């Protein structure tokens, strides 16, 4: 709001020109009615104010606030402020009433200011001219009008003040209601009511705490409701399943009842037919017996009649002589005697009564009793073998029963699968289990077994399932340590399977060893190797443990025994299959010796791959590109040959005498030690003054060189320049009794660089 000095002045009219013009248009009658109403409202407001003061005094006395005068003054001051405060405009009508009230206050203030000015006799008033007097007179007329309007507006202002006081009191009461929460009555109350009201002895708590507690309780209840909803949904789902199961069981029971009923009817019909047939057979027998007896009786009756007639005729004869003659010679007399001698059976051959036949209903009763019994289960379904679910000696077999039949247990049968013709001779094994899985132990590695399973209950055993073939994991492979070849950056590892049956693949595991750590941390794994050898790329000057595993559908085998590989230089072994019969390999595997040379071409056994003429042996193939270095220790009085040769070098010739071998030869002549570097039987003329006792051999595939060195003095002896079309074998030979020692795994010396 604007400052009160602006109301009722000329500046105020400049600020509110529209309100002034609107109020000038109002009639004097309306103004009088408003003044009367305002006077009544002022009186009413005064009565309200009196009642409020009285109520405050009573409250102060009741709550002990009369001793604290400051609290009382604050209450009274709050009332005065509330009465003087202008309520905010809530509607358009309330806004217009507020404007009228402001106008009345401004006119009253202007009138008071003019009276005080006249009483004090302010200077400058006598010097005003007539125009100013006229203006003042106009202002007084207008002020009188505004004063009359102010009566009505003042009454309206008092009304709004009383309304504001009551509304704020209600708001304060509402705010006080939300202070605390009565736990006994479960309702929010004022803190004042806890101290002096009916909730004095009740247990209360702070409203925020009560709110949090109630929210937490509501949250727990919601969680419980959600759990109950989930449980009810599960129950409903289970009921649906039970409903479907009931329908299915009803269908099965109905079908079972129908089958048993048909079986019982069939049994009854069969027994009826059997009894009827037996009764008919008995009837036929009786009738035949009676018929035969009837025929026999008829024949006897005819004979009796005939004899009776003859005898009667004889009896009527009157002539005595004739009677006697006929009687003696009468033929019927003989027949009569014979007939009378016969015993006539007058009893019935059979009785007319039939044997009482009773149908045996025991089988029918058994069938009827089995209607309510549990039917025999259906055949289970055995699962195919899961990968990596077997070991070398055990298998885990799983199956399922895709029906709701009652099952008390299972019968698992298995036997080894044989490729032989008489596979039926394999022994079958049977196990009784309760679960739908079983682990079978004490089996053979890498062996196929055939499994089938049947379900059991009180009614019997189900048909067997389809047969499934499982296979155990392989045995660990066996690494051929004497066939391993390596160099500074690679190794060729060979092994053999520990099983008779083939495996799917192999896995090679590398363990890099250090001085600080010798654990089994796998550095690298090579998987899916189809054959029993692999070429592995390694790092120079390192040590590795290498193991091999075999793989099949059943799983992986255990690790093989590890082998240690050094990548400090080229390593190879001597191939015993190529050794001459007179050549011996000592226990270290790298020393060869020959004790005798008597007729090396005599009656010695000849092997397919061994040398027959030259007392020689080949080392393992060196299948790695690059440079390879090894040394041979010799004695000065030993004649020998050493170098390299192809795999197909002739076994019946000498090393160096053909185009498939390159070698250095040492022979002793009466005058000196002679050294030859032979290839295709040819050698250059080279004289070596210092006989080497340690010969270094450098094979360089990339530069197509084969170099020989005196390793004792780092002296280069000779180099063959030849393009090796294939990988070569180291070769060694003795021409006199002696010993050669081969050293491998040596780092290539720097002085070998040409």
CATH architecture assignment of the domain at 576-743:
Sandwich
Please report which band the strand proportion falls in: under 5%, 5-15%, 15-25%, 25-35%, 35-45% or over 45%.
Answer: 15-25%
What characterizes the major β-sheet? Answer: 7 strands, antiparallel
The CATH topology of the domain at 576-743, please? Jelly Rolls
Give the overall silhouette: flat
Enumerate the spans where pLDDT stays under 50 for 5 or more consecutive residues: 1-28, 40-50, 75-130, 141-160
Coiled coil: 262-293
Keywords: Coiled coil
Biased composition (Polar residues): 94-120
Domain Fibronectin type-III: 380-476, 477-570
Notes on the protein architecture:
Helices cover 38% and strands 22% of the residues. Among the domains are: 208-358 and 366-370, no CATH class; 381-419 and 427-472, Immunoglobulin-like, CATH 2.60.40.10; 478-567, Immunoglobulin-like, CATH 2.60.40; 576-743, SPRY domain (Jelly Rolls), CATH 2.60.120. Helix 5 crosses helix 6 and helix 8 (207-315) runs antiparallel to helix 11 (362-369). The longest helix has 109 residues, at 207-315. The protein has a seven-stranded antiparallel β-sheet with strand order 21-22-32-24-28-29-30, with no helix packed on it. It has 754 residues and is α+β, with helices and mostly antiparallel strands. The protein has eleven helices and 32 strands.
Question: SSE layout and pairings?
Answer:
Layout: H1 10-15, H2 17-24, H3 28-62, H4 69-84, H5 92-120, H6 130-177, E1 180-182, E2 187-189, H7 191-196, E3 204-206, H8 207-315, H9 320-328, H10 331-341, H11 362-369, E4 381-382, E5 395-400, E6 409-416, E7 429-433, E8 437-440, E9 448-457, E10 460-461, E11 468-471, E12 478-479, E13 485-486, E14 490-496, E15 505-513, E16 524-529, E17 533-537, E18 543-552, E19 555-556, E20 563-566, E21 584-585, E22 591-594, E23 616-618, E24 627-633, E25 640-645, E26 661-668, E27 673-678, E28 694-700, E29 705-710, E30 715-721, E31 729-734, E32 738-743
Antiparallel strand pairs: 1-2, 1-3, 4-5, 5-8, 6-7, 6-9, 9-10, 9-11, 12-14, 13-14, 14-17, 15-16, 15-18, 18-19, 18-20, 21-22, 22-32, 23-31, 24-28, 24-32, 25-26, 25-31, 26-27, 28-29, 29-30
């Amino acid at each position: 709001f604007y400052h009160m000095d602006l109301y009722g002045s000329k500046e105020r009219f400049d600020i509110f020109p529209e309100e002034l013009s609107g109020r000038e248009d109002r009639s004097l009658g309306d103004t009088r009615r408003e003044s009367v109403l305002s006077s009544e409202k002022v009186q009413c407001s005064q009565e309200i104010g009196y009642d409020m003061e009285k109520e405050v005094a009573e409250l102060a006395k009741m709550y002990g606030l009369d001793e604290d005068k400051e609290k009382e003054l604050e209450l009274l001051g709050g009332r005065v402020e509330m009465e003087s405060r202008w309520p905010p405009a809530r509607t358009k009508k309330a806004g217009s009433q507020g404007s009228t009230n402001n106008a009345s206050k401004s006119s009253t203030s202007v009138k008071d200011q003019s009276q005080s000015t006249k009483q004090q006799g302010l200077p400058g008033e006598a010097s005003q001219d007539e125009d100013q007097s006229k203006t003042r007179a106009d202002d007084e007329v207008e002020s009188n009008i505004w004063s009359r309007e102010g009566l009505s507006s003042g009454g309206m202002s008092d009304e709004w003040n009383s309304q504001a006081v009551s509304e704020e009191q209600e708001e304060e009461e509402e705010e006080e209601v939300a202070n605390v929460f009565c736990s006994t009555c479960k309702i929010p109350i004022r803190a004042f009511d806890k101290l002096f009201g009916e909730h004095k002895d009740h247990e209360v708590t702070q409203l925020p705490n009560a709110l949090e507690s109630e929210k937490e309780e509501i949250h727990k209840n919601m969680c419980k409701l959600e759990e109950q909803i989930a449980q009810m949904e599960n129950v409903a789902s289970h009921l649906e399943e039970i409903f479907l199961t009931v329908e299915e069981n009803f269908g099965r029971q109905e079908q079972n009842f129908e089958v048993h009923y048909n079986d019982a009817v069939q049994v009854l019909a069969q027994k009826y037919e059997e009894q009827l047939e037996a009764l008919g057979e008995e009837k036929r027998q009786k009738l035949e017996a009676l018929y035969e007896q009837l025929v026999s009786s008829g024949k006897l009756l005819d004979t009796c009649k005939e004899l009776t007639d003859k005898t009667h005729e004889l009896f009527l004869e009157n002539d005595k002589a004739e009677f006697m003659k006929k009687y003696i010679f009468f033929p019927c007399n003989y027949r009569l005697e014979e007939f009378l001698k016969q015993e006539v059976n007058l009893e019935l051959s059979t009785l007319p009564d039939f044997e009482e036949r009773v149908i045996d209903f025991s089988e029918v009763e058994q069938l009827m009793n089995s209607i309510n019994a549990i039917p025999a289960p259906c055949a289970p379904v055995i699962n195919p073998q899961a990968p990596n679910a077997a070991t070398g000696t055990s298998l885990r077999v799983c199956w399922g029963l895709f029906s709701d039949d009652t099952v008390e247990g299972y019968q698992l049968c298995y036997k080894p699968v044989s490729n032989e013709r008489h596979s039926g001779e394999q022994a079958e094994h049977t196990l009784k289990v309760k679960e739908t899985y079983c682990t079978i132990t004490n089996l053979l590695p890498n062996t196929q077994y055939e499994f089938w399973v049947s379900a059991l209950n009180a009614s019997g055993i189900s048909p067997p399932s389809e047969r499934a073939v499982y296979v155990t994991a392989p045995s660990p492979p066996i690494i051929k340590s004497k066939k391993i070849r390596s160099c500074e950056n690679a190794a060729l590892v060979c092994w053999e399977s520990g099983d008779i049956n083939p495996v799917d693949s192999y896995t090679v595991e590398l363990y890099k060893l250090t001085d600080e750590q010798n654990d089994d941390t796998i550095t690298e794994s090579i998987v899916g190797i189809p054959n029993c050898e692999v070429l592995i790329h390694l790092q120079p000057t390192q040590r590795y443990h290498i193991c091999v595993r075999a793989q099949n559908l059943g799983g992986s085998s255990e690790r093989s025994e590890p082998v240690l590989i050094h990548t400090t230089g080229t390593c190879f072994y001597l191939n015993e299959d190529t050794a001459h019969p007179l050549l011996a390999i000592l226990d270290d595997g790298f020393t060869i010796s020959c004790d005798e040379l008597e007729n090396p071409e005599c009656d010695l056994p000849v092997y397919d791959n061994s040398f027959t003429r030259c007392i020689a042996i080949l080392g393992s193939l060196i299948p790695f590109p690059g440079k390879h270095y090894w040394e041979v220790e010799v004695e000065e009085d030993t004649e020998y040959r050493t170098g390299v040769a192809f795999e197909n070098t002739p076994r019946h010739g000498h090393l160096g005498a053909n185009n498939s071998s390159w070698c250095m030869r040492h022979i002793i002549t009466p005058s000196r030690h002679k050294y030859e570097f032979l290839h295709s039987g040819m050698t250059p003329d080279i004289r070596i003054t210092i006989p080497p006792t340690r010969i270094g051999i450098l094979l360089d595939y990339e530069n197509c060189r084969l170099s020989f060195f005196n390793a004792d003095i780092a002296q280069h002896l000779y180099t063959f320049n030849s393009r090796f079309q294939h990988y070569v074998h180291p070769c060694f030979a003795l021409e006199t009794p002696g010993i050669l020692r081969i050293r491998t795994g040596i780092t290539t010396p720097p002085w070998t660089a040409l």
